[in-house]
Structure formats: C-alpha cells, structure tokens
From TrEMBL:
InterPro entries: Anth_synth/Amidotransfase (IPR050472), CarbamoylP_synth_ssu (IPR006274), CarbamoylP_synth_ssu_N (IPR002474), CarbP_synth_ssu_N_sf (IPR036480), Class_I_gatase-like (IPR029062), CPSase_GATase1 (IPR035686), GATASE (IPR017926). It is an enzyme of class 6 (ligase). Residues 2-132 form the Carbamoyl-phosphate synthase small subunit N-terminal domain. Residues 1-175 are annotated as: CPSase. The keyword Membrane does not apply. Belongs to the CarA family. This is Carbamoyl phosphate synthase small chain.
C-alpha cells in the first residue's frame, strides 16, 4: 500500500492510500453528492482544475466503459473516495476505475473519511487543496505551502482550456428540422445528442468564435454550454451573447451558459461557499411552481432574488428558477427577446431526466422564431 494525503489550504491533512496515478495535483477541492455517474463526473469539463470528493461511500463498482465519457478525457485535477470497489461488476465494464485513473495520470486518494471531509467543506467552503502520494509526499508544512501558492478559482479563466480547437457538427437524427450554433465553453457529449434526437443539426463552435462565424451558419438558435471557471472572466462570451440577443436569435443556455446570459443581461455573479454538485438537487420554476430534481455542477451563481424582474438593454427579464435548499438563482428568462437559461444540466449525464423537456421548449422557441 502506498500512502497518500489530501492537504487543504486551511492546514487540515487527511491521510489515506494512493488511488490511481502517483504524484501531486493541485486544485480546488469540492464534493459531489451523486450516488452514481462517476464516469460522467470525471469526464465533465466543468470539473477542470477541481479535486472531486465523492460523498457516496463506495466508488468504482461498475468499473469503466468506453461509452459513457462526456468528453475525450478525464478533467478533474484529483479524486478522493472512501471505499474503492475491489472488483468492478458490470457487463459494460472494460477495466477498473483505478486503472483508468492511472492511465490518464489522475492522482487520487482512497480510505479518507469523506463524511468528515464533506462536513468540513460545508462549514469552511470549497478551498485550494492538493493530493500527494508516493515520492511527492512531504512534511505537512511543506505540502500546505505548496497548496497555498496555487491559484484559486475566483478569477480563473478556464473555458479556453476545454473548448474545442475546431468546429464540428453533430448531425440530426432523422429529418433535420433546425440548425443550432453551440458555443463550446466545456460542452458535454450528451448535450448535442439530446438536441440531435429532436431533429437539430448542432454546430459546436470554439469559444473564440465571432458573431460573423455564428451568422454564417444562419442558425435557428444559439446554445451556450456548461463550462469551468469564473464567469466574470468571460468578456468575449458575454459580448457574443449580447450580439445574439441584439439579433433576436433564439438562445438557450445551461450551467455556465446561464451565468453568461445573466451577465449579458446586466446581472453580477458571485462565488458560492461550496456550490451545488450532484444529481439530486431540487429546483422550483417560479411561474408554474413545479419542482424538478436536477443534475448540477457549479460553484458560481447569479445575484438576485427568485422571481425578481428587472430591466435590461434587451427589455424585461425574470429570474425564473431557484433552489429551495438555499434560495440560489437557477434560471433566467428574457421576456422581450427569445432567450432563457438554467443553472442545471438538462442533458442529465448522469442524473435525473426531469429537466429534459427544456430542449423541447428550445425547439418551440425556434419554431416560433421562423
């Protein structure tokens, strides 16, 4: 057994054993409450530069397959689990989770009391941390100092690290009904698939794309994806969103895209204490009162009160959804231009499917815009 440690910037050290690759990795430590879907979590680009703590006690039961990745690689900076499964058991499994972590160079630690760690992060908030194992293990003071010199998440411009280098197209399934330009801020693979199933041809574009690149496609709609980092750094994406709003092209955003749309409409964003990460988070629609159980992964949120209406350069806007756990704003709807967004993940990979009809709402909006 090789020793390993998770070291927090407040000086706490949690000791366990190495899991995955050996070495050292720095990032922001956060916890995810999903009971399943660890493969989708690990390959979600929104987790770029974050060390993920799984609150579910046993991880790795179903191994690793070659179908469920949400991007081309694992993006987490480090991985923390309590009780890794010794033998994966699933007909789709091709190898163990520990083997895949090692293959992709992801440094992890197992055997930690993740319940205690999660309670600590709930009280103190997400913070800088490091996972150290093998030859990288050192004196506590030395490891804490390495963690404290690492960059934080506030002010982090990360979407450019995860966006596609070149545009690509996901063809519509069956008859092509619509064309959508999707700005890739860290898009998950299932999102274009969900749109393709509705007859949408999805053109996934790099973050550096211009409004001319979008209008050249003559799209029926524009989509803003999820992604990592601080939305306050995304001046280009916000400006591009404003240009889309000026043209009254139907627009739909999720997660990071919700924050981008909110900022384009004049709202500010703030860093949450520990964020929302999991597949069991309730959201209420202020118009209908309906509750959806949602998949989420965000550490920043829009300022405002649920149901609040305000004026913008593009007319009236409503803060349309909220989380009843803490009152966090979870959606934005423009009332005078065709645009809306939510803070959660309707593609549900992994997660519940309560929010899938939002893609149908986007289709309706594009139909009305013709």
């Amino acid at each position: 057994m090789t020793n390993a440690a998770l070291v927090l910037e407040d000086g706490r050290v949690f000791r366990g054993e190495a899991y995955g690759a050996l070495g050292a990795s720095l990032g922001e430590v956060v916890f995810s409450t999903g009971m399943t879907g660890y493969q989708e979590t690990l390959t979600d680009p929104s987790y770029h530069r974050q060390i993920v703590v799984q609150t579910a006690p046993q991880i790795g039961n179903t191994g690793w397959n070659d179908e469920d990745d949400e991007s081309g690689r694992i993006w987490v900076a480090g991985y923390v689990v309590r009780d890794p499964s010794r033998v994966p058991s699933n007909w789709r499994s091709r190898r163990g989770l520990d083997e895949e972590l090692a293959r992709q160079g992801v440094v992890g630690v197992a055997g930690i009391d993740t319940r205690m760690l999660t309670r600590h992060l709930r009280e103190r908030g997400a913070m800088r941390a490091g996972v150290f194992s093998g030859d990288e293990l050192g004196a506590d003071a030395e490891m804490v100092e390495r963690v404290r010199t690492a960059p934080g998440m506030r002010g982090a411009d990360l979407a450019g690290d995860v966006t596609t280098a070149e545009p690509y197209v996901v063809e519509a399934i069956g008859e092509r009904r619509f064309t959508v330009a999707a700005l890739d801020l860290g898009i998950k693979s299932n999102t274009p698939r969900m749109m393709a199933a509705r007859g949408i041809e999805v053109h996934v574009l790099p973050l550096t794309s211009t409004i001319d690149d979008i209008t050249a496609l003559d799209p029926d709609g524009v989509f803003l994806s999820n992604g990592p980092g601080d939305p306050a750094t995304q001046e280009h994406a916000v400006g591009l969103t404003r240009a889309v709003l000026e043209r009254r092209t139907p627009l739909f955003g999720i997660c990071f895209g919700n924050q981008i749309l909110g900022r384009a409409l004049g709202r500010e964003t703030y860093k949450m204490r520990y964020g929302h990460r999991g597949i069991n988070i309730p959201v209420i629609d202020v118009t209908t009162g309906k509750v959806a159980i949602t998949s989420q992964n965000h550490g920043f949120a829009l300022e405002g009160e649920p149901g609040q209406e305000f004026g913008s350069d593009f007319g009236r806007v409503q803060l349309s959804h909220f989380c009843p756990n803490d009152g966090t704003v979870e959606g934005v709807r423009a009332l005078d231009v065709p645009a809306f967004s939510v803070q959660y993940h309707p593609e549900a990979a992994a997660g519940p499917h309560d929010a899938a009809p939002l893609f149908d709402e986007f289709v309706t909006m594009m139909s009305e815009g013709r």
